[in-house]
Each structure stands twice: as C-alpha cells, then as structure tokens.
C-alpha cells in the first residue's frame, strides 16, 4: 500500500479520500478498475477503503465504523460521532433493533444527509475523544446521550456493562448528567444512572436485578464471593447477606461458551456442585432464567420474598462473604481502547 494512503487511513479510521489517492499517484481513470477488482471499496462519494479492510469489518460486523469514518471525512467540520454510533465505537451493549443511521454531534447547527444526522449540541473538550482514528464523543458523554433516548432498562444494561469493566464510574456519569440539567430527556438519563450498579456482568443479570428491585425487594450485594476459611466456594450474582438468601442469573453463556477450557457438560456439573455446596452452608437461593422475567416473574419474586422473610437457620455462620474485586470483572469484556483527547 502506498505510504500516503496508509497514513491517511491511520488518521481517518481506515478510510481515505480521493485527494489522498491522487497524492499517491492514482489517477481518476485508475479508480474504477480498483473498485471492480475489489482492491478498493467506495463508502461515500470521494471516500474509499481497501477491500481487505472492508472484508475484515464485514466479518466482524463492524462496517458501521467505516461508514462513520467516511461521513466524518466528508464533513471535515469538527463534528464528532455520537449517540448510538458512538455506542458502537465504544463497544457498548446495544439494544436489539437499533437503527443503522449514523449519528454525529456538532455545536453549530442541526443538519442531515444521506444516511446520517448531525445533532446540534455543545461539545466540551472533555466530551470528545479519538478512538481508532475516529473523533467521537467520550464514553461518559456517549452513555448519557444514549440514556436520554433509549429505554431505561437498555440504558442501565449498557451502563452496568461499562461499570463492570471499570471504564467509567457512577460519579463521572452523575457529573455528566448535572452538566446537561436543561437538556431534553435528561431526567431519563439521570434515572438510568441512579439505577446502575457495579457488579452486573451480563445483560441478564442487570435485567433480573432491575426486575427484583422494581418489585420492591431490597438491594442485594452483587458478585458476592463466599469463602469457607481461605477457600472460595463460589461467586453469587446476588446475595442478601443478613437473610442468607442468594439469586443466580442463569443465562446460556455459562453452558454454551464455558470458560477455563471446560466442556458444556463439565460446566453444568461444576455449577451443580457449587450450588449444592451453597445449600450445605444453609444459604437458600433462587435461579432466574431469561424467560422468568416475563410470565414467571410474579412467582419468582414471591419466592424470594418468602425466603427473605424466613429467618436463616440458627447457629454460627460457617462462611464469610465479600464483594469480589469490588464488583469489577476479573477480565474486562472490552479491552481499554487506544484513545486520546481530541
């Protein structure tokens, strides 16, 4: 690849302009054969990427990032990728059915073009970063922006996930909300931040916790590590410590994609042994499958409520509890990006 084109792609999120191609000695009549052969791919008028880069993004399901980069390069006016598009750049957990239109923010004026919308809003220096060569709203600003627009549960899922990786703090999010006090729908974002917690390691854990708390149950400890002496028995998704009651969010991932090189059968067996040992310690628990958040929710909540109202067995406790790693994942879902201030 010509170094001029390579440098342009590094600057602009893996895309380059027709002007870069001309500086690299590619004439206008040379472009069509490059497109036909698949060596190049046109993203927008006058903006290209290589066929290899396009195919890699297509396989990863991230072609939206190239589309964002192409719009940024065409606008060239200080706009930043924002809202749901920024959520994709930051690898947030996205709601299902999210539209594919590219969203940007600029302080001057609202405008729209083919496949993109530019929102008019202020952009403080702290609200803008560069991620993978793309000028994008910061992670904190992005979370607050989408929380103003998404369903509150979807917003809490995204915030919980970022909190679990240690990528943001609730204090940072609260400060960002306060900076947007008079912005549209900021109360919705404030509620999402209020409901978010460090310690939910999957969307199902977040949705289940919100359902329980929404039904009037007290807040549990999240990622509660149970020890007998120095030995870790297991880590519970939720624990009401004083009552000796736990809850587990049973998703498919722990069976279909088990960690530690275990087979699905080994994962199920290990989970059974762990559950049995919790019961042997006089802990009492309820497991929540994704389907339990619908028709079975009332019965599940009633069962947890009965357990919480029933005193634990008498006698000294044979275990100790602490929140594991402060609720943070031991291995982040999203690796820290190579980002910088814009």
Automatic annotation (TrEMBL):
User: Where in the numbering of this chain does the AbiEi antitoxin N-terminal domain appear?
Assistant: 10-49
Per the record, which residues fall in region Disordered? 312-342
Name it. Answer: Transcriptional regulator, AbiEi antitoxin, Type IV TA system
| A Pfam family hit | AbiEi_4
Species, as recorded: Klenkia brasiliensis
InterPro entries linked: AbiEi_N
């Amino acid at each position: 690849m010509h170094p001029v084109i390579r440098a342009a792609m590094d600057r602009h999120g893996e895309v380059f302009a027709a002007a870069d191609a001309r500086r690299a000695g590619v004439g206008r009549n040379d472009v069509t054969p490059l497109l036909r052969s698949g060596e190049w791919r046109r993203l927008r008028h006058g903006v290209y990427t290589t066929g290899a880069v396009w195919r890699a993004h297509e396989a990863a399901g991230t072609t939206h990032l190239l589309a964002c980069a192409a719009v940024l390069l065409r606008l060239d006016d200080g706009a930043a990728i924002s809202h749901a598009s920024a959520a994709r750049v930051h690898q947030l957990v996205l709601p299902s059915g999210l539209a594919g239109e590219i969203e940007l923010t600029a302080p001057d004026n609202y405008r729209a073009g083919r496949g993109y919308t530019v929102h008019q809003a202020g952009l403080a220096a702290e609200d803008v970063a560069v991620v993978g060569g793309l000028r994008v709203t910061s992670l904190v600003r992005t979370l607050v922006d989408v929380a103003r627009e998404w369903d509150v549960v979807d917003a809490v899922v995204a915030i919980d996930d970022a909190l679990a990786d240690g990528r943001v703090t609730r204090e940072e999010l609260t400060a960002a909300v306060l900076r947007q006090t008079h912005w549209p729908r900021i109360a919705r974002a404030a509620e999402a931040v209020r409901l978010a917690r460090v310690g939910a390691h999957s969307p199902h854990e977040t949705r289940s916790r919100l359902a329980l708390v929404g039904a009037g149950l007290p807040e549990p400890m999240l990622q509660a590590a149970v020890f007998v002496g120095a030995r870790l028995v297991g880590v519970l998704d939720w624990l009401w410590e004083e009552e000796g009651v736990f809850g587990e969010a049973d998703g498919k991932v722990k069976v279909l994609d088990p960690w530690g090189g275990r087979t699905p059968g080994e994962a199920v067996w290990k989970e059974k042994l762990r559950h049995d040992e919790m019961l042997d310690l006089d802990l009492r628990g309820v497991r929540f499958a994704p389907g339990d958040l619908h028709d079975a929710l009332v019965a599940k909540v009633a069962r947890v409520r009965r357990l919480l109202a029933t005193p634990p067995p008498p006698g000294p406790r044979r275990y100790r509890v602490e929140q594991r790693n402060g609720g943070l994942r031991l291995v982040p879902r999203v690796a820290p990006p190579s980002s910088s201030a814009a």
